[in-house]
Amino acid sequence: MTRPEITVGILALQGAFLEHKSHLQKAIGRASPGSSLDTANFEIIEVRTPEQLASADSLVIPGGESTAISLIAERTGLLEPLRQFVRVDRKPVWGTCAGLILLSDEASKAKKGGQELIGGLHVRCQRNHFGRQAESFECNLPLPFVGEEDHPFKAVFIRAPIVEKILIGADATADVTEGVVRAPKMDCDLFDRTEIEVISSLPQTQGKEAGDIVAVRQGNIFGTSFHPELTPDVRLHAWWLQECVLSRSKE
Ligand SMILES: NC(=O)CC[C@H](N)C(=O)O
Fold it and tell me: Where, in this chain's numbering, is L-glutamine bound (predicted)?
């Protein structure tokens, strides 16, 4: 019996898409024999066209430069299909760093006129929260759900955003703030009251204020401020495939 294939796409317009591809392949290759990750039949593809996106069951949007990714997506006719994929079809999506910015309904410190958002995550993220490239840092992030609690997850933050506001609630649209770019509203949003889970906040580290939200999940949309594909650790990729891609594809 051939197992059904699950196609995992990686948006490959700009940024760290090759690193995500290799992490997903390693996470699958290292799955314990007989586990659902091991026995599933995955295909990992790079996505550059609407046709490739249509063949994907789930998608990773990598870190890089969100303005560049959104510009290329617009020019290649991918922006609207991406909005459809995430917000209407609600297929599992994971955005890291620039990917998190693109998936947010609102972004502050964003380039007005130079930045289109895909939207879907009812949050406002703040771009470049920690400052410039030189202010990049690494820290041990508590992510107990990836297993091995005594083996902390090293998170790499490069000109990273944070989630500065959760937008579900009474004041979601009341607050019109300068310097904020918004994803266009879609009819499907009216019915969406899926809770946002805060998955991880920054611990006290290197003089940074503790508590900044750096990982969130809202239904099928998962977003992280950091770059899990830039360390050798593949646990978060394995978790995403297991919890967000495989469990959803069974529904
Ligand atoms: N490492 C990253 O993805 C950086 C994101 C970048 N600051 C942006 O706004 O797109």
Answer: 64-66, 127, 158-159
